[in-house]
Structure formats: structure tokens, C-alpha cells
Design brief:
The chain is an alpha/beta fold. Helices cover about 35% and strands about 20% of the residues. The protein contains 4 helices and 4 strands; from the N terminus they run ββαβαβαα. A 4-stranded parallel β-sheet has the order 1-2-3-4, with helices on one face. Helix 2 links the parallel strand 3 and strand 4. The two termini are about 25 Å apart. The model has no long low-confidence stretch (mean pLDDT about 90).
Length: about 110
């Protein structure tokens, strides 16, 4: 059973980390270029989430998939449907008028 997290910069292909997946408990997929809040989600990263989810199911692994960057109410369902278990949504929450309502809509 995995016990370490793994992070994926947007430039890394899923196939580059496949050998490590049996040993991790979380895979963090950066869905923006790291470093600045408020960026738009980079759409091809959703395909990485789908690929990680398919691999997890096919190989009966139990890591969680975390998506970080550009997450907002308008795209959260698509990211969850792709297989993400955890969403990091800083700017979407901070810039909202009602934090609790925004968090509820993101789930």
C-alpha cells in the first residue's frame, strides 16, 4: 500500500510516473503552471486525470487524484467526472461572496 504523495507538473506525461503509482497514496496533478493564483485551468490536464483514473482502476490501485489550479464551480464537475478525488480551489473560494456556498457547489 502506498504511503507517499507524487506531484505532476503540467509538462510531465502520465507514462513517466506509472512505475511509481503503486507506491503513492496521492497524485497531485497541477492543472495550471505553478506559481501564481487565479490562472485558468489548462484543459489538456483533464486528460491526464482521466488517464490516471483509468490506470488506477485497471491496476486496482488506491491512490487519490488531486487537481490543483484553475478550479472553479464552472469546471469542477468535469474534473470530478474525469476522476479527481480532491480539488484545490483557492482563488475561486477567496473571490466568492459566500465561501460556504462556493465550497458546496465545488463538491
Amino acid at each position: 500500500k502506498g504511503s507517499a504523495p507524487a506531484g505532476m507538473h503540467i509538462s510531465i506525461c502520465v507514462k513517466e510516473i506509472l512505475e511509481f503509482l503503486p507506491y503513492v497514496h496521492v497524485v497531485l496533478v497541477m492543472t495550471v503552471e505553478p506559481g501564481k493564483g487565479g490562472q485558468e485551468l489548462i484543459l489538456p490536464t483533464i486528460e491526464k486525470i482521466k488517464e490516471l483514473n483509468s490506470y488506477r482502476e485497471e491496476h486496482k490501485l488506491d491512490y487519490e487524484i488531486e487537481a490543483d489550479g484553475g478550479i472553479k464551480v464552472e469546471n469542477s464537475e468535469k474534473i470530478i467526472d474525469a476522476g479527481a478525488d480532491i480539488l484545490v480551489a483557492g482563488t475561486a473560494i477567496i473571490n466568492s461572496k459566500d465561501y460556504a456556498e462556493t465550497i458546496k457547489k465545488l463538491k
